[in-house]
Amino acid sequence: MKTFKEYTQLNEGDTTAAYDMEKVIVSAAGGPKFKSKLIKNSDKVGNKIIKSLRLSGKGSFPKNKYSATDEWNTYFGPGGAKGSTLTPKTDLLVGKKRISLKTGDAQLMSGGPPEARATFYSAAKKSGTLKQKLIQDLSQHMDNLLPTTDLSKIGVKGSKTDLEKAGKFAEVEILKKADDAHQAFKKDLRDAFGKNPAFAQAFTFEAMTGDTKFGNSIGTAEFFLVTDYEGNAKLHNAFKDKSYVKKISSQVKPDVKFKSTQNTSSQLKSPTNPKGKTGFYTFWSAVGVGVKMVVKEEMEKGPMLNEGIFDFVKRIDNKAKNWLSDFWDKVKKMVGDTWDSLLSFMALEPVVKFNNTISW
Fold first, then answer.
1. pLDDT for residue 110 is more than 70
2. How much is the pTM?
């Protein structure tokens, strides 16, 4: 988050508003005009974001897909990366800035076995941890992930939730074995993130940016734009601001779980079943990296991660000057221009001193 669009865990309403926010920002940057029905005063919100972050250049959107690098395709496996996995990490562009938009809790990635394998080996290589025992042990879990599996082949109907409610999930051996593998993998992956910060940061960085995957092309997100729906925003350069990546990597929660989609058949389409749903599902394992983007906290806390200490001091100094200026303007309106009025307003009595010694 497209990456954010494809993997976000926000509810449907918030997700639609997040899509709108992308268009609002692009519109404010001189791209295709757009006014949101979900975001109040969207024109002002977009202009506020562009102005406060000092973004320059025309707004636009990336293509739907970008080619993966040879290195990524090697990690990915036979045939290389294809399909939705080639969706860019960049959500929008303003000038040359490749931006990934975050408006709330989000998944940085949620990929099947090939995607997880490629991200894992890329992170291990970049962090120099591939030969460490903890990481080598973790790599063995890759072989236990469930590839795309159509359960209609074995006559099993229902989603994971349906099967669990019916008490039949444990009876489906292929799913039970995969679920056990998920729990073991998740435990060890979280353990690796906790004990090996270098690996955690490299994994998070790749999930955030797609740097190795897209080779720093337009598909690679360079900036993270975190905003609320009132236009209070922060911009982080993931490539230059290592402290921000470190912060995110310490907050993410790696997860390993099932993903599934219901099979359809054109022969089953009807007024009551317009999509032709069959009741059979295709399952696969997915490794996810989620992060809670606490937007309010991001806007309210002290020196922001995307500004230096001198920028912070200058910002505070400017706020103080502006406050004092406003204060004295109000005082002036209340008491007028004379010193007598001012001293009376301040409840002050002047004390006059003079030197009584005359020097000749």
1. yes
2. 0.76
